[in-house]
Amino acid sequence: MNKQLLLKHISSEQEMMPFYINEYVRSMQVSQKSYTTIYEYLKEFHRFFDWLYDSGIISDTNYKELSMSILEHLKKQDIESYILYLRERPKYNTSSQQAGLSQTTINRTISALSSLFNYLTRETENEEGEPYFYRNVMDKIKTVKSKQTLNARAASIKNKLFLGEDSLNFLEFIDHEYINEISPNAKSYFLKNKARDLAIIALILGTGIRLSECTNADVKHLNLKTLTIEVTRKGGKKDVVSIAPFTKIYIEKYLDLRKSTYLPDDKEQALFLSKHKGIAKRIDNRTVENLVGKYSKAFRIEVSPHKLRHTLATRLYSETKNQALIANQLGHTDLNTSAIYISIVDDENRKGLDQL
User: Are residues 136 and 264 part of one domain?
Assistant: First the structure.
């Protein structure tokens, strides 16, 4: 989601929130939390307040007037009931009904609420210089660690990565074969956006940047002479990321057609564009997720942009065996975050066993 749209959504959520939530938002802005994080936290708070109402703990949906005393006096059992609700509630998608949220998503919910309660009980100051209240129910709630080993996690995603020659084969498939897989009515739309779509997929495959880092990129951030792109990482940190050479031809072709295809206003600096009601605008995350999904499904197996990021990291580790290099390329601050790629690549263990 682009910055302008994020700010609009953040503002819309803030209009419904009590003053202490908006004070917390200001605190996050001061500490340079990303707009994406702020918006996700606001959505978590909104969902939590909805549950407070649905469960009868509060009697009004005018959250702007929600008293802090409600949060102060919540019991551990209340939070546990909310977690069970998230775990068991129906979750719908286009193809099936699935049970509740994953533990990873629930952990993010716990993290968001813990951060808010920590702010209210430790960091805020009333007129006497004291926190708004002291009782922090979230201190009693712990996240649940994954029960999967690193090898199990690696095995679960390995088949969803385009490793070896598959990365280039995927791009070749989109460039030359995908058109034969679609209806005549879809061909004109595909041909219009093919250069852009190839450039986006090639860029993620050739850099490992996150989806938001890709969609938020401006033309000025790209330097094809040095094969680098400037991105804003999580936490608002600026970074310069190297681009694999195979990506260049796809980006150059897109840039040659960018203006003539999308007719952007001179002030529109977004690198990747889409047209809505005849107006060229920055492409959004959902559009990229959809295009990656449809092309990958036609090629072999439907994947997300995040799996393309995993693909780059795995291929890079396979070539270099350098965990620090992977962390630097992906923008990880913790080397251990990159350990999963070692598990994916290290098939030498199996080869060794085969020789026993």
Answer: no
For the stretch 12-46, pLDDT in tens is 999 999 999 999 999 999 988 888 889 999 999 99
Task: Tell me the C-alpha distance between 278 and 263, whole Å.
Answer: 9
Tokens of 137: 């129910």
- Identify the weakest region by mean pLDDT among 2-16, 88-102, 115-129, 244-258: 88-102
Whether residues 30 and 85 fall in one domain: yes
Regarding predicted confidence, which is higher, 3 or 179?
179
Same domain, 94 and 217: no
Contacts of 206 (CB under 8 A, 6+ apart): 243, 244, 246, 247, 312
**Closest alpha carbon to 52 in 18, 25, 94, 22:** 18
Catalytic residues: 210, 234, 306, 309, 332, 341
What pLDDT, on a 0 to 100 scale, did the predictor assign at position 147? Answer: 64
- Work out how many domains the chain is built from and give that number: 2
Burial class (CB within 10 angstroms; exposed 0-12, middle 13-18, buried 19+) of 180: exposed
> What does pTM read for this prediction?
0.72
Provide the mean pLDDT of the chain.
89
The domain in which residue 131 lies consists of 3-147
Is pLDDT of 192 > 90? yes
pLDDT at 225: 96
The yes-or-no verdict on residue 235 having pLDDT over 90 is no
Domain closes at, from 130, 147, 164: 147
Are 176 and 225 within one domain?
yes
Q: Please say whether the beta carbons of 329 and 312 come within 8 A.
A: yes
Query: Shortest CA distance to 168 belongs to which of 244, 228, 246, 243?
Result: 246
270 in the same domain as 227: yes
CATH of the domain at 188: 1.10.443.10
Nearest CA to 94 among 327, 293, 338?
293
Question: Where is the domain boundary, 147, 167, 193?
Answer: 147
